[in-house]
Specification:
Blueprint (H helix, E strand, L loop, with lengths): L1 H21 L10 E6 L4 E7 L4 E7 L9 H17 L6 E3 L8 H11 L5
Parallel strand pairs: 1-4
Antiparallel strand pairs: 1-2, 2-3
Helix pairs in contact: 2-3
Length: 119
């Protein structure tokens, strides 16, 4: 019972951080917001134009048959960078979605930079 409460508290704190950050950043057509979602099994990311409310590009590690790890985050980021370049996007605003900039999230962001996307 205690573990369930701890997980609920942890998730509610992440949601709180997410809302605080989302009040300060926004994506446009020329510089979309890249948001990352990480579960225990998969990693997904999408580039969002918040002005029009549309997703410009997205990637999901489940579709690539990859689980969550730093090595797989770099593979997912490389694929995502290709789809961003195909949409003529080279500069983005990074939204870590309330997660710590550590581990998988940091590996994903670094791999995006290595593939020519400005954060």
């Amino acid at each position: 019972m205690s573990r369930a409460k701890d997980l609920a508290k942890k998730n509610s704190l992440r949601i709180k951080r997410k809302k605080r950050v989302r009040g300060k950043i926004s994506g446009t057509a020329s510089r979309p917001r890249v948001t990352v979602f990480k579960s225990n099994r998969y990693l997904s990311a999408q580039a969002v134009n918040d002005v029009e409310g549309v997703t410009l590009a997205s990637v999901n590690s489940k579709a690539m048959n990859l689980n969550v790890s730093k090595e797989n985050a770099t593979k997912v980021a490389a694929t995502f960078a290709e789809s961003l370049k195909a949409a003529n996007i080279t500069e983005v605003v990074f939204d870590k979605n309330g997660y710590l900039y550590h581990g998988v999230v940091a590996a994903f962001a670094d791999a995006l930079r290595d593939n020519g996307i400005k954060l």
